[in-house]
Design a protein that fits this description.
The structure is a homodimer. Chain A is an alpha+beta fold. The first copy, chain A, contains four helices and ten strands; from the N terminus they run ββββαβββαβααββ. The termini of chain A are far apart. Chain A binds a DNA duplex through helix 4.
DNA sequence: CCAAAAGTGTTCCAAGTACACCCATGA
DNA sequence: TCATGGGTGTACTTGGAACACTTTTGG
């Protein structure tokens, strides 16, 4: 350890739990590490916070650098937790990681950059714990729980779909994130009855196998009264 | 800035929002700073995390060092948020603070130690924003909101009272933290009806001005089903 | 006796659940 | 026409809010 004055020296990283839906499946954005430690293993995207850079700005920057995803597509990063147990990073430096969570709609395929050999969407159900580098399995779990809870209390789910969507698309989000089936009839009434949650788009209909659905866009509501509940 | 290898250097602190009830009032533990910067101003207790020390351990240590309060009395520290905007600490070093919240019952008067000129309980209603050093007013606000929300969903409130307590003492906790009056009748039914929340203590009664109340101790429940709601 | 706090009963209403049933389209 | 998913109606149940009322103490 090198001391500048009287206090111990730390490195600080921003680590990201970016979630999206791909073919009805909840997926997390991972990178395959191109450098030691844990070279070749999957990890959450992230990296060192720069001098004079705010923590949240570092998160957006790392997202762009490691995965090529435009930060403008993923507004609304939320701080999750900070992980700093000694030894969680095998490097000699003491590393403290500030983790962030985010949900995105129709995010593009990532392209690897900087320290990442590869960047990809991985369905969360396909992940065994030991596949991830560092303590990232734990961070991912915390992020998933935060996302599940966020759907209950806030209008977050609309971030998972496009700008215009049907009620069943929205229900698909809840079912994928919560991992359970919801009653279509009750879900319909619940979301359409919550003030400022959904705004009907004039006259539009969409096509599918059955009766066409109405199309909505997200309303100004941010918190849901009353909350949508999981079982 | 001094670099050890390729990454910027940070100092990491643990800052504490410790809440308790003193004469029906919600109070926060503050210290009067004895050293620059902000010497003479009130601040949340806290200090630098040591080398090879876990973040949570640093929080407990700082509590003991700065206020003389035995960490054994304040189990259950919960991580709040991490604050790291450049310039939030006027010192040349970049300082990132991991904040923690906790509720305690019947905590003793603090005694100042290390960097603190004074340590004291301050009713949160007596605080104007600009009285606190750094961005501690914001951290305190976030901590208060976390505590208020915690009372809704978890059995946290029992941490604010002694090992044995009456239903109206518990109601006093909710009223002080939420800053609103609750219906004694409905509160009674709610808490006594929540499984594993309260355990009656055999035959005991307490004395006051009216009819004596039954005495309970905290049960094993940690989450409340259904939650107790604020207005 | 009266005041005050503890505790119960009861009524009303908001909201979740389950499920029957109708609607509008494609094949 | 039937299958499929969209959407409404409705009956049941759970739990919160309001408040009347009874109980048990101190003064």
């Amino acid at each position: 350890m090198v001391y500048r004055s009287e206090f111990p020296v730390f490195a600080v990283t921003a680590d990201l739990v970016i979630l999206t839906l791909r073919e009805q499946q909840l997926c997390v954005l991972l990178v395959r590490r191109g450098v030691e430690p844990y070279a070749g293993m999957l990890a959450l995207p992230g990296g060192f916070v720069h001098e004079n850079e705010d923590l949240v700005d570092a998160a957006y920057r790392e997202l762009a650098e490691e995965t090529g995803i435009d930060p403008a597509l993923v507004t609304g990063l939320e701080q999750l937790q900070t992980y700093g147990t000694p030894g969680r990073d095998p490097r000699p430096e003491r590393v403290v990681s500030v983790a962030w969570v985010m949900l995105g709609a129709n995010l593009p395929d990532p392209v690897a950059g900087s320290d990442a050999a590869e960047a990809l969407w991985v369905p969360v159900t396909d992940l065994c714990e030991q596949e991830l580098a560092f303590d990232h399995a734990r961070i991912l779990n915390d992020g998933l729980e935060r996302a599940r809870s966020g759907l209950e209390h806030s209008a977050l789910a609309t971030a998972f779909v496009g700008p215009e969507f049907t009620v069943s698309e929205l229900r698909g989000v809840y079912e994928a994130v919560w991992g359970e089936r919801l009653d279509p009839a009750n879900f319909q009434r619940k979301v359409t009855g919550t003030k400022d949650f959904l705004i009907p788009v004039k006259g539009q209909l969409s096509l599918g196998r059955g009766r066409p659905a109405r199309v909505y866009r997200a309303g100004p509501a941010t918190v849901l009264h009353p909350p949508l509940r999981r079982a």
